[in-house]
Recover the amino acids of this structure.
């Protein structure tokens, strides 16, 4: 009878790979936490990778942060002028950049630059058997390649996000300064007067989570690359797309939680 | 088809002993009940066409793949059930030379060779590491390439460095995956010579996976003919060559025509 026919798929042809992918990503992440706290610790490699992540992204973050500061100030000024509230401009820009734009812009830049680089590098190592070569040399490739990279992005992103916020505020100051006489110190004091400890804490936490996401997604996609050079390109591409999607999702959740804490 | 045991007159100590080995990938059955022994100090060339499961066999030996069924004993340890730490300790006694060398792109030759050493032997000083690297580079005849990146090496040189990288850990067993593939006849002959030199100098026991008859003939003390997941014939090169089996004859004829 047809009803007793053995089923080839648990759910369907489309859903089965999705769920097995989720399960595999979960195992990969769980393995990271298991390996991250076990000896040996490759501190030097974490440092190298942090340097790589920071150095690779710094010029782009500087430029983007500066431009965002200018543009956001330019766009906000007319609306505030309508209400005669231009003096609130530094506070508005400060809150917007520190709370949201700084970490988010940094994360998106790093997802594109660092996430794709991790995906492509590990993918290429996978398809050329360099990961297997580590394995047979009694070196744990997961610990050496994945744990170090994820730790590097997790540590570096908050630093970069803070830097981006400062540069963004400077961009904003440059724009304000072109219109009215205000000193840099006064501008920064005014911008930070509305920023609470919770804002800084949320910003750093967000950037840390984004950094972890970029590292783990890039590593996961690279480590599981198949199909030769085509697979390497696919891994790099998927690392960026998935990281960005998860970053926006996390932003949504973290903002909700932060607001809940703020008004609790 | 009758399952043949890998027979030998060698009564020495078996460093690899495999029985009833099965391995499949999804619906594709790759190894169909392999029995295999490698004795101390000998070279066994596993000959067969692409896709016959040769590489899968040595990847199981080194623990990169898990068998579906069967027993895999390497240097007295059950590879398939070993914990990570014990497996790593065993892997230090096995050298694996990859088909495409698998050199680390981002490291130069010195770093490629020093990497497994420094990661596994914490007590070594910098001069010790340098000496060890220079020694293995001398053994493979590429001492002058110490600061060169893998991308600047020829195919043959990459193979040699790949072999040197395994030798630096002083392995007892060497596993070569297609050591002469993609090389011209002259470079192939050099690699064959190197494999034999390694066996004598480092007193290793080796499994050489190849589809190259010249390589099999000149490196293997015994030849194991692996076709469609089973050993069809095992013996000296002359014995395998003289086989009446149609598939083996076909394999040899095709290679000679090539």
């Amino acid at each position: 009878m047809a009803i007793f026919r053995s089923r080839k798929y648990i759910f369907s042809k489309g859903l089965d790979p999705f769920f097995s992918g989720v399960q595999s990503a979960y195992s990969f992440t769980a393995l990271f936490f298991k390996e991250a706290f076990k000896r040996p610790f490759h501190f030097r490699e974490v440092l190298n990778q942090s340097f790589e992540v920071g150095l690779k992204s710094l010029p782009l973050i500087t430029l983007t942060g500066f431009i965002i500061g200018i543009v956001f100030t330019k766009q906000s000024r007319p609306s505030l002028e309508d209400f005669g509230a231009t003096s609130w401009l530094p506070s508005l820009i400060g809150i917007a950049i520190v709370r949201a734009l700084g970490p988010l812009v940094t994360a998106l830049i790093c997802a594109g630059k660092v996430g794709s680089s991790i995906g492509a590098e590990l993918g290429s190592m996978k398809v050329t058997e360099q990961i297997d070569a580590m394995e047979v040399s009694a070196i744990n490739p997961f610990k050496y390649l994945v744990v170090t990279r994820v730790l590097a992005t997790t540590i570096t992103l908050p630093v970069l996000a803070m830097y981006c916020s400062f540069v963004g505020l400077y961009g904003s100051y440059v724009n304000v300064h072109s219109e009215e006489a205000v000193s840099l110190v006064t501008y920064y004091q005014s911008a930070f007067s509305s920023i609470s400890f919770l804002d800084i804490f949320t910003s750093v936490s967000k950037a840390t989570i984004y950094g972890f996401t970029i590292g783990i997604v890039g590593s996961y996609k690279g480590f599981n690359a198949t199909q030769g050079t085509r697979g390497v390109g696919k891994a790099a591409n998927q690392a960026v797309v998935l990281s960005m999607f998860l970053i926006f999702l996390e932003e949504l959740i973290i903002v909700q939680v932060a607001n809940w804490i703020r008004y609790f | 088809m009758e399952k043949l045991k890998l027979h030998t007159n060698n009564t020495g100590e078996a460093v690899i002993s495999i029985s009833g080995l099965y391995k499949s990938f999804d619906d594709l059955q790759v190894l169909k009940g392999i029995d295999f022994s490698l004795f101390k100090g000998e070279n066994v060339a596993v000959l067969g066409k692409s896709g016959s499961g040769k590489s899968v066999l040595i990847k199981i030996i080194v623990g990169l793949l898990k068998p579906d069924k069967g027993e895999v004993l390497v240097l007295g340890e059950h590879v398939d059930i070993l914990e990570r730490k014990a497996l790593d300790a065993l892997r230090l006694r096995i050298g694996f030379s990859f088909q495409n060398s698998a050199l680390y792109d981002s490291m130069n030759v010195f770093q490629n060779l020093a990497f497994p050493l420094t990661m596994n032997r914490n007590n070594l000083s910098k001069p010790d590491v340098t000496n060890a690297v220079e020694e293995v580079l001398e053994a493979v005849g590429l001492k002058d390439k110490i600061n060169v990146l893998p991308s600047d090496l020829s195919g043959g040189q990459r193979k040699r460095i790949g072999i040197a990288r395994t030798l630096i850990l002083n392995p007892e067993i060497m596993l070569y995956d297609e050591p002469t593939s993609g090389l011209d006849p002259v470079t192939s002959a050099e690699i064959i010579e190197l494999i034999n030199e390694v066996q004598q100098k480092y007193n290793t026991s080796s499994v050489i996976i190849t589809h190259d008859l010249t390589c099999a003939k000149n490196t293997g003390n015994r030849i194991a003919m692996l076709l469609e997941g089973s050993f069809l014939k095992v013996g000296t090169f002359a014995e395998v060559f003289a086989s009446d089996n149609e598939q083996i004859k076909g394999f040899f004829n095709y290679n000679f025509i090539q």
